[in-house]
């Protein structure tokens, strides 16, 4: 069975999962078997690759490929919560909170390597960075499926220098 079929089989029947149940489902995948379908997500318009592998009314499973030196936008996940497993490389996960003016400020960061997991609780704002020399591939699952996500620009990016 292809890994994409395993993913559809594993996540297709899940109803109202907790974050730990999402992690357990990720742990059950035979990811050593064939990763080519996951790593096929390649950068296009975004600075990173993103491929939806399974989407039901309950969950959405996405493979992310961040090339060396690239990063995602600072973003939230709308009403969703999720869990992710690092498949390859070293990922820096940076957490943000909004300042009084609504601009994101980093307050915590954690490096994760192959085989490690990270959680994205509802309301989390974060950015994933690849500061290494090889690619980062990770597998993410969210419940409910992603919708209404927001990306944030830091103050220094929107500041209008007039003096
Ligand atoms: Fe995210």
UniProtKB/TrEMBL annotation:
<keyword id="KW-0479">Metal-binding</keyword>
<dbReference type="InterPro" id="IPR014710">
    <property type="entry name" value="RmlC-like_jellyroll"/>
</dbReference>
<comment type="similarity">
    <text>Belongs to the cysteine dioxygenase family.</text>
</comment>
<dbReference type="InterPro" id="IPR010300">
    <property type="entry name" value="CDO_1"/>
</dbReference>
<feature type="binding site">
    <location>
        <position position="77"/>
    </location>
    <ligand>
        <name>Fe cation</name>
    </ligand>
</feature>
<dbReference type="GO" id="GO:0005506">
    <property type="term" value="F:iron ion binding"/>
</dbReference>
<feature type="binding site">
    <location>
        <position position="75"/>
    </location>
    <ligand>
        <name>Fe cation</name>
    </ligand>
</feature>
<keyword id="KW-0408">Iron</keyword>
<dbReference type="GO" id="GO:0016702">
    <property type="term" value="F:oxidoreductase activity, acting on single donors with incorporation of molecular oxygen, incorporation of two atoms of oxygen"/>
</dbReference>
<feature type="binding site">
    <location>
        <position position="126"/>
    </location>
    <ligand>
        <name>Fe cation</name>
    </ligand>
</feature>
<dbReference type="InterPro" id="IPR011051">
    <property type="entry name" value="RmlC_Cupin_sf"/>
</dbReference>
<protein>
    <submittedName>
        <fullName>Cupin domain-containing protein</fullName>
    </submittedName>
</protein>
<dbReference type="Pfam" id="PF05995">
    <property type="entry name" value="CDO_I"/>
</dbReference>
């Amino acid at each position: 069975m292809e890994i994409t079929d395993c993913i559809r089989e594993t996540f297709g029947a899940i109803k109202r999962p907790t974050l730990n149940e999402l992690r357990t489902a990720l742990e059950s995948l035979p990811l050593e078997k064939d990763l080519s379908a996951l790593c096929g997500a390649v950068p296009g318009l975004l600075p990173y690759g993103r491929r939806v592998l399974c989407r039901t009314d309950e969950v959405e499973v996405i493979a992310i490929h961040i090339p060396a030196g690239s990063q995602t936008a600072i973003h939230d996940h709308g009403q969703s919560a999720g869990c992710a497993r690092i498949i390859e490389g070293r990922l820096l996960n940076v957490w943000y909170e909004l300042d009084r003016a609504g601009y994101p400020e980093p307050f915590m960061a954690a490096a994760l390597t192959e085989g490690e997991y990270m959680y994205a609780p509802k309301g989390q704002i974060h950015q994933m960075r690849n500061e290494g020399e090889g690619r980062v591939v990770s597998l993410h699952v969210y419940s409910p499926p992603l919708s209404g996500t927001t990306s944030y620009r830091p103050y220094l990016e929107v500041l209008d220098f007039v003096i």
